[in-house]
Design goal:
This protein is of the alpha/beta class and 438 residues long. It is built from 14 helices and 20 strands. It folds into three domains: 149 residues, Alpha-Beta Barrel (TIM Barrel), CATH 3.20.20; 85 residues, PK beta-barrel domain-like (M1 Pyruvate Kinase, Domain 3); 123 residues, Pyruvate kinase, C-terminal domain (Pyruvate Kinase, Chain: A, domain 1). Strand 17, helix 13 and strand 18 form a beta-alpha-beta unit. Helix 5 packs across helix 7 and helix 8 crosses helix 10.
Amino acid sequence: MVRLNFAHDTVDAHRKAAALADELAAERGRIVGVLVDLPGPKMRTGPVKGGEVTLEAGQRFVLGNGEVTGDASSVSTSVEDLASFVSAGDEVYLADGTIILRAKAVDGGVVTTEVVRGGVLRSRKGMHVPGAERHIEAFTEEDARSLHHAVDLGADLVGLSFVRDADDIRRARSALPTHGPRPLLVAKIETRSAVENLDAIADEADAVMVARGDLGIQMPLRELPLIQKDIIRTCNLNGVPVITATQMLESMTRAPLPTRAEVADVANAVLDGTDALMLSEETAVGDHPAASVTTMAEVAEEAETRSGHRLKPVKEELVGDRVAWAVAHAAVEAAEDLEVAAILCPTQSGSTVRRVAAFRPSVPIIGLSAQPPVLGAMALIWGVTPVSCEDLESDLGPDVLERAVAVARDQRVVGTGDLVVVVTGAAGHTDLMRIVEV
C-alpha cells in the first residue's frame, strides 16, 4: 500500500504519486492500495531563521501567534488560542517530543516557557500539549477539503488524525459522497482519549492505526509497548484490520541496515497480530527507501512462520451481522480441515474478506472484485491477495461460484483438481459457503 500524507506537499503532487503507483502496479500485475492521511488539527511551530535554531536547557523561550520568523528566543505556532488551554506548569513538546518546554507564564495570547530539554528546532515541526484534544476538533474544515481531494484521486482508505471517540469517525463518514466509491476510514490512535474510547472506535472505524509517534508523547513512553499490544488485541478480537506505524525502521532513514532492536520491533508487531506495518520517514525522505521495504517484508515473512498462536475473534462476541460472522468462521474451519488450496471471496464491498481474514486461516485468501477501491482496500488486510475480476462487475448472481473459480484458475492462484472454499454474499452480507473442486 502507498501512503500519501496530506499534511505535506500539494494535491497535484499526491495525485501524480497515486497515478504512478497505479501505473507501476499494473505493469507488474499487482494490486497496490492508496491510503491518504488527512492533515488533522496538527499543531506546528512556525518558520525559524536560517531553517533551524538550537535551544539550550534552562533558557527562556516564548511561544506566540502569527506567521513571524522565529529565532533562539521565540517562535510562532499554528494554534491561534494556544494560551487558552496552557497553564503555568504545563509541559509543551516541540519537534515531536525531542524538545520539552515548561510553561512559566501566560499573558495576552503569549506563552512564556523554560526549556527543560533542549535540542535543534527546525521550521514547522510538530508541537504537542498533553490533553489538547479536549480543545481541538478532530475533523477540521481543511480535513473536509482534503477528504474531497482524496476521494477525487481514488484513495482506497483515508486516515483520520487526532481521533478522540467514535463521534469523530461519524463526522468524517457523513462528509463522504453518497454515491460512487467511498474510501474506508482508518482511525489513528494517537491521543489519551482515543485509548480510553478504543472499543467504541474499533466498532465504528473500518480500520485502526497504532500511531506511535504522537501516542508516545500523549501517553507515558514506558506504557507505549503495552498500549500497542492492547490496541492490536482489541482489533483482532473485533475483526478490525490494524496498522502498526512510526519509527519501525527509523535508522534506515540514513543507514543501509536496521538496528537489531528495530528488527525485533517489526517481528513482534507481526507476532502480536497486526495486519499491516507502516514505513513513513524511511521511505518518504530516506536514503534507502527500497531497502527499507525489502527489509520490512523479509522480517515480516520470517515472523509469519511462527504465527500459529495469533489471537482470533471470539465468534459469539463479534458485533454486527452474526450470520455473516458464523458463515465466515465455518468457511475457515472447513478450509483448515480439508487443507484446501485457497479460500475464494467474491465481494463488492470487501466485508466478506475482512470477516474471513479475521479468523487468520492458514490457507491463502483470494479477494475477487471488479471494484478498484475494494481491491485497493483489500491490500491492507492480513493474508489477502486481491485479484481483479471484471466478471463480477454486475451483482453477484447465482453463477458467482463458477465465475470466481474460473478467474482463480485463469490467474493461476489455484490449479485443476484443487479443492477451494468459496465464501460470498450480497449487499455486504456473508451468507453462502461452498466447497468446490476446481
